[in-house]
Request: fold
Amino acid sequence: MPKADSAAGRAAERGTLIVADLPIEGIWTQLSLWESQALAAKLVRTKAEGLRDAPDDAKIQRKAASLAYCLRNAREYLRGGQSAITPRVVANYYGCMWLASAILVANPSNDFNLEKLESITKSGHGLGNIADEHRAFPDNEFVYVRESGFFPEFLKAQGLSRADLNAVKIAGASVRDVAGLEPERAGRLISVIDILARIPELKSTFEYVTDRPALSFGIAHAFYNGQEEAEDRSASGRFFSGPQRSRDYTWVALTGVAHLDQGFIEENGPPLTEHVLRTFAGHTAWEGKLAHPAGQLWWSHIKSYKSAMCGSSWIKPLLGHVDDPFSLNLMMLYELSILARYRPAVWREIIEGALDQYRALIEAYNQVVDRVIPELALQAISGQRVTATTSGSMLAPI
Reply:
C-alpha cells in the first residue's frame, strides 16, 4: 500500500498498487482497513485536504463511523460464502448496495452519513420492476428509475446532471401495467437484457447465450493511423522524421464486432464517423474517426472502461445517459434479486427449467461481481486509481 500523502491530489495521481497472489484478496484487505473508524477518519481527512468547504472534525467522525459500518456490512454480504445461486444473487445485491453507500459517505464534499442514508432509503431503493405478461423472458422484464430513493441519489453523486436524471427516471406513481403506459414513460423502461448487454466482462458469454450483439465495444488505436503517418512522411520526402501529426481526429478500431453490420455499429457504437471495415495482418475490424483537438491524446476524448476481466471498452449509455459501470451493475443486481425473491415461477425456469441457459449467464455474472465490483468500489472510495496485480508481474515492484 502507498504511504499516506500530505496532499490528496498527489495521492490520487499516484494511485494505489496492490500486489497479492490473489488480487481480490488484496482489494478486500484494503477495503477492510476502513472498517476501523480511526482509519476511515484518516481516509476522509486526507480526501478533504484542499477543499474550499472542508468538513470539521465532527463531520469527519460521523462519516468515518458510517463508512466503517457500510464496509463491514458489504463484506459480510459479499464474502459470506454463499454458494447456492438464489441466496448468492440476493446477497450480491445488498452487498453492492452497501458498497454504493460507502462510496457516498466517503466523499467529504457531501453530507452523506448513516442518518442521511436512512432518510433517503425511507423512499425505497429508487428502482422499480415490472413484467410485461404479453412477452417472453427476458424481453418482458423491465427495471426503471424511480423519482426518489437511493438509486437516483447515487446517480446524482456519480455526476449525472439534474436534466439527465429527469430524462431517465419515471416520475409519479409506480408502474403497474406496461401496456397502459404512455409512450414517454414506456420509453424509460429498461429491459434486463439491455443491462446484461452492457456488462463488458460478459460480452462473449452474453452473445453465446442470447445470440444477440452486446452493447459494449472494445476500443483500440487503429493501425491505419500509422499508415497515414507514413503517407505524410512519404509526401514530405522525410521518411524517418516526417511532420508531426496535426490531424484533428484519430482512427479508433472496434474489436470483436467485425461480424456486425455498419448500421448496427453506427446506431449503437461509440461516437465515431466514417466507419470502414479494414483488414490488417489478417485481423479485420470496424474503424471510425474520433474527432478531437489536434495534438491531444484520443483516449482523453472518449469515455472508456477497463477491468481485470475485460479490455478497454466503450459502453452504450442506457437511455442515452447512464454509462457508469457501478450503477449498471447495481441495476442488474437489483433485477436479479427481485427475480430470486418475488418471482418463483420464472426463477425456477431459470435455475432448473426451460430457461436454464440464463442460469449459465447469471453464474458467469456472479464471477464478475466477485472480482470487479470490489475494485470499482475501492477506487471510488479511496479517490485513487487502483492497480491490482500478482507478484512477479510487469506491474509488481522489482
About this structure: The chain is about 45% helix and 15% strand. The longest helix spans residues 356-382. The CA atoms of residues 249 and 291 lie 4 Å apart. Confidence is low (pLDDT under 50) at residues 1-12.
